[in-house]
Amino acid sequence: MAFIGNTNTTQAFTPAVDFFSGNASTTAFTLSRPVASVAQVQAVISNVPQDPGSAYTVSGSTITFTSAPPSGTNNIYVYYTSPITQVIAPGQGTVGTASLSASLAVPAAQLTGTQTLPRGTLPTGSVLQVVQATYTTATSTTSTSFVTTGLSTSITPSSSTSKILVLMNMGDVASQNSGAGVNAAGFTLYKNGSNLTSNLGAQISYNSISTSGLTIVGFSSAYLDSPATTSSTTYAVFFKTAGAVSTVTVFRDGTLGVITLMEIAA
Question: For residue 243, which of 145, 139, 144 has the smallest C-alpha distance?
Fold first, then answer.
């Protein structure tokens, strides 16, 4: 059938009437649906329409009369006049990714506090976590095989594809040379009890005379590992004597040793 005017549209509105019983003292009643203003409902008491400008107010699902309606069974009724009676907000946790625009930009102010960002949103090379340990007890060895320095710590990667960047600083390293030759100390990194790097090495000095001498320097190093696990992984620094050295001491005089583990997104 032909018509004049705008194209017909389907309205999302279901007519409804709410009935209440007055008791001469109650002024507030709960509606069956929330409304935005008094213009969207008409209240009638004992078959007398009420003035929406002064006789009642609405707030969400509550209608409040200026004066308590008289006692009676279902002597109050409210009917809804607007085809759009409410703004429906989606419930918390009900919006999925399919409902979001691909161009959605979340303001930086919303990314503060305790929100957790999915790991997949972080670019390669991002630091996912940092673990650090220190050690200050002077430790010596005369061994030509690797022994522990006492400096170690553990990290649990959040992804099996992550890399672990290990940063090491051994404080003061003292080498006692028993004669002419190279003053050297060997350092290596152990992972879960196994030698990981063979020998990071440290040639400290060269003593050209036959008498013994003491050399004190610092030693720092770094290593990037791919543990391929999400289990706790322990990294420890080991050391040994090398060259003409008879004794090597790390963290001499209680100087600070530091090992830092950084999980890097791959």
Answer: 144
